[in-house]
Amino acid sequence: MSMKCEVCGGTEFDYDHIRGEHICRLDGFTVQDRIDRADISGFFNSEGKLERKIGANQLGSDHTETFKKLRDYSGKSLPSNKKDWGRRKKFNRNIMIERTPLRIEVEKYIKTMSGNGLVKSIAKKIISHTHSTEAHNEKMGHTLLWAEMKNANDGNDVSLPLNETRHAQKMNEKDTRNGNYTVRMVSLAAMTVASRIVNEELNTKQIAKQHDVQHNHLINESRNIVNYLRIIWVALGSIDTKENPDLARIITFPPGHLFNRSWSDKDINSSIDLLRTMFEQEVGTRISRKAMKRLEQMLNHANKHRYLCGENINLVATAFAFRISKALNPKFRLKSRICSILGIKPNRIDRLESQFSNVLDKYFSTCWKKEELE
Questions:
Q1: pTM value?
Q2: What number of helices (H) and strands (E) belong to the chain?
Q3: CB-side exposure of 320: number of CA atoms within 13 Å?
Q4: Which of 96, 116, 194, 254 has the fewest CB atoms lying closer than 10 Å?
């Protein structure tokens, strides 16, 4: 077999039987790697040459070799304290074992939680999609499905919720984010979403307190999970599963009641009342009254949308209120003020706009007629 170096064009190579590599004699470039092992990783050493490490799925080297000798690298005798020696040996062994995927740890934790067996079962299925790199790669590997998922995400690549999850470490003695904090947080988030699917509501503040998890972390993780599942369901809804029967098995549970939530009239009126005073100050009582009536119509339209009604009503009201303010006067800069009044962070508005801007614009244009306000 004739080979040619991609760097210098050389045709003379040395073959490394141990590493299974063909190495160019002129510049040392590895042209072909015949190693077929998943636990071997490559890296460049200090001299810029490619090196290989066997056991790439472990941390460090063989722990049995570490404690065979009682002298360090310089030849000095190591302490003979057996208790300390045993502690170090155990620690060294533990850090080098293969890491258990977060998904497995979460499934184990869900088993220990109290609650409906059906909810637990759905929660485990949710985790198998939202916190599994293998399942995500499978979706990416299906060209048609991945294209539709990107379309459902406004043309952007779909991020796995696992990538949004950060392992929280204990920083000091008073820090509650220690131990298996991430496992607990993801478990509660999955259970929360699963409960909503079967039309049960969990008291998120109560369970967050019981499991020593910050409530806002639980809510954010739940939102990430719901968004990822929504993208999958929207994508599958755009595909003819009869022509693509393999896609019918991608996700084996329906959204159920997850997106069939609705806001009450009391919720809608409460959001409007919070904004009324600000608009009265800016445009007067008469125009403000008519603008708030249009806002009510917009929220009623949004309340009938399958996915939008699952969002926080104050968040949706903020998006509409900002559009109203710009329509009344393009010079108004009220976004931060509106967010402050309704208790919404600006980055949440950005997320909502990235997902539902077309729907929000449609409902706004349907209900808004400025000439009727004047």
A1: 0.55
A2: 15, 5
A3: 33
A4: 254
